[in-house]
Design brief:
Elements: E1 7-13, E2 21-26, E3 35-44, H1 47-54, E4 65-66, E5 71-78, E6 90-93, E7 107-110, E8 113-116, E9 126-130, E10 134-137, H2 143-146, H3 152-164, E11 172-175, H4 179-190, E12 196-200, H5 203-212, E13 216-219, H6 225-233, E14 238-243, H7 248-257, E15 258-266, E16 288-291, H8 299-311, E17 321-326, H9 330-338, E18 345-349
């Protein structure tokens, strides 16, 4: 087996609600069954990483640990039993399970201290991931764009296709126009939803939302979303409300606006203890409220389908990439995401 790199630079979450530490850590000497060593080229940063840093789900028992779940890379080596990728393959790294082995998670070391990692992490120069978290792509693929297939594209398109099952002409509200929200909007436009209403706090994101296919935009910092949505719909009823914020008041708004057989799709992760208050009777008569798990994407099928759409010029992906950072500047990237300066998807270039 090819010898592995012994060390790499990585972003480490050492303490909740604190900046990440960028440091050199040691890799394992060998790969276990089902593990794949990947050289990372580009990694996206998702809102999920901000939630991890903030401890949105509560206590984090795995500190210190690595982060990241969407990236592009090249396979350097594979462990025993790996059949679906081989050294030299260009790949997308994703958090949804694909084909192959669900391997044990790797352990790294930092000055003698154990550093945990999940089945996929991407904010590092290299990553040891499970076979079922990588999907091979053509050698000629644009590796910047390919990183988006790890989460932003597959989740956004999957929400429209699998969770909301939007039909031609149905009305859609997308609350939160970040990296995933913009792809939800693009997918809704692809299936001819109307109207497609994007809601966000930042004009730069709303401008990009219109480029992705939003027919109407609402800046919720300046205007009341309920009033504006009802005005746009006029006498029509709202079919689908998609929340990317995880905020109870936004979820409750969506539930109140959708019609008797309407759908509320929850994408954003609520903070631990953030509960919603709804009148549940309509759920017995056709109204739906459901959480999305990565758009229920199937990586080995969906990545190639969406990649073909991109190659055919049917969807816009390069336009979604608005910011680039080095790994050393990871905390600047995170801060810019928090304050709205990143209006599309930012990539960390290794």
């Amino acid at each position: 087996m090819q010898s592995l790199p012994k060390k790499m630079k990585a972003a480490i979450l050492t303490e909740l609600k604190k900046p990440l530490t960028v440091a050199e850590i040691e890799l394992p000497e060998t790969l276990a069954v089902g593990q794949v060593l990947v050289k990372i080229h580009f990694s996206g940063i998702c809102g999920s990483q901000l939630g991890e840093i903030d401890g949105a789900k509560g206590e984090d028992k795995y500190l210190p640990h690595l982060l990241g779940h969407e990236a592009s890379g090249t396979v350097l080596a594979v462990g025993p039993g790996v059949r679906h990728v081989k050294p030299g393959n260009k790949v997308v790294l994703h958090w949804r399970k694909g084909v192959g082995i669900d391997a044990e998670t790797p352990t790294y070391y930092w000055d003698g201290r154990k550093v945990n990692a999940g089945w996929v992490t991407t904010l590092s120069e290299y990553a040891i991931v499970s076979e079922n978290r990588v999907t091979a792509i053509p050698d000629e693929s644009d590796l910047e764009v390919a990183a988006l297939f790890g989460c932003a594209v597959t989740t956004g398109f999957g929400i429209i296709e699998n969770n909301a099952k939007v039909r031609i002409g149905e009305s859609v509200v997308v609350f939160g126009a970040g990296g995933i929200g913009l792809n939800i909007i693009q997918a809704a436009a692809l299936v001819s939803a109307y109207p497609i209403i994007a809601v966000d706090l930042y004009e730069s994101k709303l401008k990009l939302a219109k480029e992705m296919g939003a027919t109407h935009v609402i800046n919720s910092r300046d205007k009341d979303p309920r009033t504006e949505i009802l005005s746009i719909l006029s006498a029509r009823k709202l079919d689908v409300f998609i929340d990317n914020t995880g905020l109870p008041n936004v979820i409750e708004l969506g539930y109140s606006l959708t019609h008797a057989q309407g759908k509320v799709i929850l994408v954003g992760v609520p903070r631990n203890g953030s509960n919603i208050n709804i009148y549940s009777l309509p759920l017995h008569f056709g109204k739906q409220i459901t959480g999305s798990h990565g758009g229920e994407a199937i990586p080995q099928h969906d990545i190639s389908r969406y990649h073909h759409l991109y190659q055919a010029g049917r969807i816009k992906l390069r336009e979604l990439i608005t910011d680039y950072f080095s790994l050393d500047d990871i905390n600047d990237a995170i801060q810019n995401m928090r304050n709205g300066e990143v209006h599309g998807r930012c990539l960390v270039k290794m």
